[in-house]
Amino acid sequence: MKKLLLAIALGVFSFGAVNAQTKKAAAKKEATEKKETKEEVKEDRKAAKEAEKNMTEEEKREAFHEREKERWTKVGNYWKGKHEEKVARDSAREKEGKERKGPPRPPSPKRKKQTEE
Question: Is 105 helix (H, G, I), strand (E, B) or coil?
Fold first, then answer.
C-alpha cells in the first residue's frame, strides 16, 4: 500500500515537473519573439527618421499623415475586434439562457379554473 502511494506521488510530482518545464520553455520562446519584434520596430523607426532628414516639408507631412492613418486603422481594428467578441459573448449568453429556461410552465390549477369561469 505504501509503495503504491509512493509510486502515485512520484508520478504526480514528475508529471508536474515536466509540465512546468514545457510551460517555461513556451514562455521563454514567446518572450524572445516579442523581443525580436520590438527590435524590428526600433529598426524601422530609425530608418524612417533617417529618410525623413532628406525630405521636404510637404513630404514629411505626407509621411506623417500615412503613419497616423495606419495607426488609427490599427486602433479601429482593435476596437472592432473587441466589439465582435462582446457580441459573440452576448449571443452565447442569450442562447444559454434560452436553453436553460426550457419549455413554458403549465398553468396552475387555480388559474385554469379562473379562466374557465
Answer: coil
**Could you tell me which residue, 1 or 98, shows the higher pLDDT?**
98
Give the max Cα distance, the chain: 94
How many C-beta atoms lie closer than 10 Å to residue 60's C-beta? 13
Give pTM, 2 decimals. Answer: 0.36
Q: Which amino acid is located at 74 in the chain?
A: K
Cell numbers representing residue 98 in the block: 434560452
C-alpha span between 5 and 23 (Å, rounded): 27
Three cell numbers at 65?
Answer: 499623415
Is the Cβ–Cβ distance between 39 and 50 less than 8 Å? Answer: no
Give the C-alpha separation, 39 to 91, whole Å: 41
pLDDT digits (tens, 9 = 90+) for 48-72: 778 878 888 888 888 889 889 988 8
Q: How far is CA 93 from the centre of its chain?
A: 18
